[in-house]
Structures are given as C-alpha cells and as structure tokens.
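The methods section describes the discrete structure representation at length, but only in general terms. The central task, working out the structure tokens from the amino acid sequence alone, is never made concrete. Nothing conveys this as quickly as seeing an actual entry. For illustration, here is how one protein appears when written out as sequence plus structure tokens:
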Amino acid sequence: MNLENFNQSLESDDLRMSKSTQLHESRDLVVAKELPSMNLLQLLEFLTDFQSIEREVYVPKLHRRENDTEHSYNLALAGWLIVEKDKLPLNADLVIKYALVHDLVEVYAGDTSALDDEGRKTKIAREKTALKRLDNDQLTTELAAMIEEYEEQANPESRFVYSLDKLMATFMLIHGQSSVWREHGITYTDWQDRFLSKLQVSPYLQPYTQELLHQLRMNPHLLAD
C-alpha cells in the first residue's frame, strides 16, 4: 500500500469512528433525558439501616457482632457456590435473590435471635407489619414481593435458602468458638430439638448438615452440659 492509499484508509477509519461516536452520544443523550427509575440516595439510606441491624452472631477476628448486610451477602455467596459446585438442579439466581432479601423486614422489625424465646412470641406479627411497610413503599415494593415468595416456601430454592440460613449461623458460631449456646443453657439435645428439623427442610444440604453435627460433637465445650 502506497502512502496516498494509506492516508485515505486512515481518513476512512476516522470517519467511521466519528459516526459511531456520534451515534453512541445520541443514544446516551436519549437515555440521559429519562428520569431515573429510583432514588439512589433513598436506597442507600435503606441499605444503611439494614447494615445497622446487628445479629447475636459474633464475627471471628473482628470482635464485634455480624450485621444483616454481611449475613445476607455471605448467605447469597455460599448458596450460589453450593448450587454451582454440587451441580444442584436449582435456579442459582433465585437462590441469590432469596438470600439477599430474606431478612430485609428486620429494617423495621429488628432482628430476633433464635434463642430469644420472649422476642419470638411477637416476631411473626412484627415482621408481617414490616413487610406491609416495604410493600407500600415504591422503593421496596419489588423486594417485598420477593420476600413473600421466599416466605411461602413453595419451591426448592426458598427451602434451600431457609435451611442454609440456619446452617450458616451455626457454622459461624462454631467458627468463632462462641459461648452463646452455653450462656443460654443449650445442650446438644436442646440444640437438636430446636434446630435440626429446620436444617432438614432442604434435602440438598444433607451432607452439610452431617458435617455440622460432626463439628458440634467435636466442640462439646460450646454447649451446656
């Protein structure tokens, strides 16, 4: 290719790039003129409120309580990985969504520990009121619908997340060598009576439940005598 042809080729490329840039700018301008679908500042305020909810589970090494945001993220990530690695016939996207929204009612209802027998008497009523509040807010109405779908426990994904939620909390207590069971006078038999049936809601988590039981037997000092 001679110099003249080379220069013409460059000019042609520049012209095509210019037209492409103009087209993208035109499309961006059209999008920019549309109003945003949500108020991100309001969403961040809501998410910050969610992050401020502390659970009874302590985070190893950080010497503080786990918050709802951390718990939900960890649950979503663990659920996704288990579905993928174990090649489970579950919708991973649905598992992730259920995990992310399952505790959002606690923004208004607060967290109720599984060992708080007194608080659990009003838990259902408080969370039902909180769900209505989420549903009536334009910002969170879609999230409320997903929470309702999860709480119906009508599909294997929701039952998977329900059981994994209980598994993850227990593994966290073992990992952090927490004394919470002993402080509440929970023996191994008490623990089985309270939690084992909840872990068995999803058959896909049976291997992890067996591992958890093994870990409990290996750490008897975490439970009351």
About this structure: Residues 185 and 224 are 5 Å apart (CA to CA). The domain at 40-222 is CATH 1.10.3210.10 (Hypothetical protein af1432). The chain has a mean pLDDT of 90. The chain has two domains: 1-34, 40-222.
